[in-house]
Amino acid sequence: MAGKKVVVIGGGFGGAAAAIKARASLDAEHIVTLVDRNRKTFLCGMNPLLIVGQREVERSSRSLGVLANRGINFLQAEVSSIDYAGKTVDTSGGTLEYDYLVIAAGAEYDWDHVPGSAEAYSFYNIDTARRLRRRLSRIKKGRIAIGVASVPYKCPPAPYEAAMYMDWWFRERGIRADIEIEVATPEPGPVPVAGPDAMSLIRRALDRKGIELKTEAPVTEVAADGRAVQYGNGDSSDVDVAVTIPHHVVAGLVRGVSNTGLIGEGGWVKVDPKTLETNEAGVYAIGDVNAVPMANGRGVPKAGVFASAEGETVGQNIAAAINGTEAMDFPGEGYCFLGFNPNVTALVTGRFMAEGKPDVRLTSPSARGARKKERFERDWKRFRV
Ligand SMILES: Cc1cc2nc3c(=O)[nH]c(=O)nc-3n(C[C@H](O)[C@H](O)[C@H](O)COP(=O)(O)OP(=O)(O)OC[C@H]3O[C@@H](n4cnc5c(N)ncnc54)[C@H](O)[C@@H]3O)c2cc1C
Q1: Which range of residues forms the domain containing residue 220?
Q2: Number of compact structural domains in the chain
Q3: One domain, residues 159 and 287
Q4: What's the mean per-residue pLDDT of the chain?
Q5: Tens digits of residue pLDDT in 222-257
Q6: Long-range contacts of 76-80 (CB under 8 A, 24+ apart)
Q7: CA of 304, closest atom in ligand 1
Q8: Co-location of 243 and 256 in the same domain
């Protein structure tokens, strides 16, 4: 059999898992190439810890260059377009031919969607997280608002985790009484995917910690001086630190005209929920770039654990197609962490693709959960997730 070419665009959770799984299941005559504009990637799941001084950037980063040790060609380049008919990918490092293509280019942020958000604080990428950390390290009193612009956004528990970590940090520093924290969401409550019991448990935890929760209140504007936030329900707050979770959009590469057939109603890549294949034969889309519909019509949460599991499914299935072995379905099981403080963590966990409705629950917050989160970070560093 002539050697096949597998190209993976994006070396985040999903792309790395797909490339590793495909490579491990294929003979050496087949070539697996991973393209990313960046050599170094960051574990954003640790940003809520980073902003309260409990993580250093180096501990939460990894280099895609080491994938060469596993027989994967890593190309650091910008992908500009995909020719589905000709089966080629144009990159700043040359044109790549493919037999199988995995699009794992993730979500991007539209900072202009909420006026003032670009100048406000955030923790949704490494640069904004570092800037917020500097600001929080200096604060002594005032009001902090954490506002979510829209759904879907990455890691549904992250805004609540960030608020609870701030609460913990200000208590440690003895300044909590002088600082007010509010968190605002467009949704009817915190992390609705986890079900009503979880929503009320998180509500109670926020309440106990003195964190104000605003629901059905997407952040719609941050004042030019960063001193006020406006919400979609008409509410507004005067603040000292405005933190936004930006509006998410599909990766720019996929917004191009040649991809129009790929995009579904919500603006994300449409895929077969079992195989994660797109409308184009031999082209798969995994992770934040896609919308995998759950039984309730909503998409599987945008989280690294799902991107990684989708990558494994697709890597395995591409190898199965080449090797003539049996394919697997995306299992749709996974979890997201919700730290109540750096030492106590709960998990939003379950069968997200269960029939009827997602079968998801929130575990009790525990030290064991916090250890699991630390283990996850170590595994991520070693490309085990
Ligand atoms: C604050 C925060 C907390 C989070 N907490 C958790 C958590 O606790 N648990 C969890 O599971 N998930 C968490 N997540 C979500 C998780 O980080 C994402 O869901 C995950 O990174 C998605 O993986 P991905 O592979 O789809 O995309 P990404 O990780 O975004 O990777 C996409 C890659 O594609 C590359 N790329 C894009 N376009 C191009 C192009 N044109 N050319 C070349 N390269 C390109 C990018 O450089 C990038 O490396 C969190 C996210 C944030 C922001």
Answers
A1: 109-248+334-381
A2: 2
A3: no
A4: 95
A5: 999 999 999 999 999 999 999 999 999 999 999 886
A6: 76/35, 76/36, 76/37, 76/38, 76/39, 77/35, 77/37, 78/37, 79/9, 79/35, 79/37, 79/105, 79/253, 80/253
A7: 11
A8: no
